[in-house]
Amino acid sequence: MLATGFSAATLFAQDQKTTAPTPEQKAEWDKKVKDELKLTDEQTVKYDALNKEYQGKFDALQNDASLDQAAQKDKKMALKKEKETKLMEILTPEQQVKYKDLIKQKKEAMEKKKDGKPGA
């Protein structure tokens, strides 16, 4: 089963000039989160379920032709915050700190890539 990435997709969505992550990129992000945060089996099940639930919501939003680009972006950001809140309920305080650090690293790498700097 291929789980969707939590922040990989949402981080890419923040910059509309950036293309959406591939399934491989999502899987890579999930593996990194699970490995570096050392999720328990129970946490992994909850993490995967959360990703599946919100991927469906993001897909539905993406396909909603009644919304203009600005409205879609606002709704995506609201979904991202809602999902992150639920994720934090799954993680221990130590894992929350590590997760926030992973997000920071991901944002920095994306900025370098967007700016055309090597090493990203």
Compact description:
The chain has 120 residues and is an all-alpha fold.
State the order of secondary-structure elements, H for helix, E for strand.
Answer: HHHHH
Unreliable stretches (pLDDT < 50, length at least 5) are 1-18
Structural domain count: 1
- The structural class is mainly alpha
Q: How many extended strands?
A: 0
Characterize the overall form: globular
Work out the helicity level: over 70%
Percent of sequence in beta strands: under 5%
Q: What is the distance, rounded to the nearest whole angstrom, between the alpha carbons of the first and last residues?
A: 28 Å
What can you see in these coordinates?
With 120 residues, the chain is mostly helical. The chain has helices at residues 6-14, 23-37, 41-62, 69-90, 93-114. α1 packs across α2 (23-37), α1 (6-14) runs parallel beside α5 and α3 (41-62) runs antiparallel to α4. The chain starts with 5 loop residues before the first helix and ends in a 6-residue tail after the last helix.
Notable traits:
120 residues; 75% helix; 0% strand; 5 helices; mainly alpha
